[in-house]
């Protein structure tokens, strides 16, 4: 049995449906002008999902193969299980937009910028001093709030390098473009506040979290979570270095 996440339709109290058809894990499917994400055979609290989606396998269209990678899906299931949050909250609020068509429009992202050998940083910090060698992988730097980010990182750093700043206040179009750039590995250094850490990374090798005990790191809206705990799990899944500052 395969589990599918239906972006628009509820099945009892969530948006997870079962099907007997075999689909490749993490693919994005289309049926009846509706979109489905393949969650695979094992999901959190599987005993709750008993309703079958009745459709012939030939009616499904594969829109994008491996929309999410294995590590992203693992974190998605963990967010549901550990924080006891339904998929209908976790998927659209953290991992994928509800209007999935808009994300598909951003499939071709811009090329990665060349990374300079000299990285300007503010006098107040040496947090970023070793990132000149990060162009071959991805480094995530998490900040408690926008003020901390702007205080610790100067504009020249952001504008000159293969860097993206991810904020909850960004437009959905900007978020979709950034999501694609991270997925394709076109962004090497990712500066993020806590709400935007749930990216589909391609080659994450290092995570730096700044002032992890700040109150801003506790998300008080569903799905509720502690950012430090999520970052530790992200580090475990990707088997990457975690630095706490």
Average pLDDT across residues?
Answer: 86
| Overall number of structural domains | 2
Order of strands side by side in the largest beta sheet?
Answer: 2-1-4-3-5
Q: Tell me the structural class.
A: alpha/beta
Overall geometry comes to globular
Number of helices: 7
N/C terminus separation: 44 Å
Number of strands: 12
pLDDT < 50 stretches: 113-126
Provide the CATH topology of the largest domain.
Answer: Rossmann fold
User: Beta fraction of the residues?
Assistant: 15-25%
- What's the order of the H and E elements? EEEEEHHHEHHEHEEEEHE
CATH architecture grouping of the largest domain: 3-Layer(aba) Sandwich
Question: What is the CATH superfamily label of the largest domain?
Answer: P-loop containing nucleotide triphosphate hydrolases
Radius of gyration: 19 Å
Helix content: 25-40%
Query: Major sheet: size, sense and barrel closure?
Result: 5 strands, antiparallel
CATH class of the largest domain: Alpha Beta
């Amino acid at each position: 049995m395969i589990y599918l996440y239906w972006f628009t339709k509820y099945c009892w109290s969530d948006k997870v449906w079962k099907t007997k058809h075999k689909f490749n894990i993490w693919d994005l499917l289309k049926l009846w002008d509706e979109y489905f994400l393949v969650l695979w055979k094992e999901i959190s609290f599987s005993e709750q999902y008993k309703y079958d989606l009745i459709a012939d396998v030939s009616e499904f269209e594969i829109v994008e193969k491996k929309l999410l990678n294995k590590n992203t899906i693992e974190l998605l299931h963990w967010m549901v299980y550990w924080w006891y949050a339904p998929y209908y909250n976790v998927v659209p609020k953290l991992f994928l937009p509800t209007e999935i068509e808009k994300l598909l429009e951003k499939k071709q992202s811009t090329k990665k910028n060349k990374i300079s050998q000299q990285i300007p940083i503010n006098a107040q910090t040496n947090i970023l001093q070793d990132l000149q060698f990060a162009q071959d992988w991805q480094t995530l730097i998490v900040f408690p709030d926008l003020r901390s980010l702007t205080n610790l990182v100067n504009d020249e750093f952001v504008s000159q390098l293969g860097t993206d700043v991810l904020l909850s206040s960004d437009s959905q179009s900007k978020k979709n473009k950034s999501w694609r750039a991270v997925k394709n590995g076109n962004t090497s250094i990712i500066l993020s506040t806590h709400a935007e850490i749930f990216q589909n990374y391609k080659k994450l090798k290092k995570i730096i979290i700044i002032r992890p005990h700040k109150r801003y790191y506790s998300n008080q809206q569903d799905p509720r979570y502690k950012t430090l705990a999520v970052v530790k799990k992200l580090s475990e899944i990707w088997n990457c270095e975690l630095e706490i500052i």
